[in-house]
Fold this sequence. Notes:
By secondary structure, the chain is α+β, with helices and mostly antiparallel strands. It has twelve helices and eight strands. Strand 7 and strand 8 (284-291) form a beta hairpin. The longest helix has 27 residues, at 32-58. The relative contact order is 0.12.
Amino acid sequence: MFRLLLFFWSTFGLFAQEAPSSFFTPSDSLNIQRRNAVIITETVLGGTTLVGLNQLWYADYPKSNFHFINDNAEWLQMDKIGHLYSAYHLGRFGAEALHWCGVRKQDQLIYGATLGFAFLSIVEVMDGYSAEWGASSGDIIANALGTGLYVSQELLWNEQRITPKFSFHTTSFAAQNPNKLGSTFSEQLLKDYNGQTYWLSVNMHSFFKGSKIPKWLNLAFGYGADGMRSGIDPTDQRYRQFYLSFDVDLTKITTKNSFLKTLFSVFNTIKVPAPTLSYSTHTGFKAHSFYF
């Protein structure tokens, strides 16, 4: 999620001749040096990530012929929404990196916004050759939906009015099955779907341009699940949860500082803690002073 910020800092030395204040400012015309640096950096980062993933995740498991699996019923589809979220933001970062280079809008969408789908599709192929897992058609569809959510808004509105966001809290279920849900906080952040909540954060001012609604104020609709110790376990008392909350669109905060704009864009992946109303068939309606 912080790939774009890492990119900017890792390439800073290539543009030492530029003033710091201008480094983060998007170019108003094609900057070949920036574009080439983006391509090289994304290639290196992507390649390194895939090699590391193969060594840490796949190397210790037997290989197989390429095959598909149907895992759409697992985790109450929380993993699928995670794929949508990842594809959207990797694509958004890819498009914004090309915007920073002064690449024309059409190419930002073709070569930048599809970054998430391309990267996650390679991971899906790696899954397909692993005997332990398998390629998932549900994952591929979710990846496409995430990319489509970004591209369609740019084509329809020339802005992002609806942004997927993420929040997380630790749960007691991880201790019950640490192999599946993680034994450390960083592992639980990725694996414990009970503590994850995915949001669609809607910028209200964008839909009501003439209103006095603050430009940064969002209404967020969340989805989560609870009671899961594994992907499918008939002994689990699992249930879905739905949320309604307020949020902040950090990209709508007015500032002339290009560094802050970049920082706000990166952290606009995370839902801001706020008063929240939740509902599930297990607990009914419940009000939270702050929920994350």
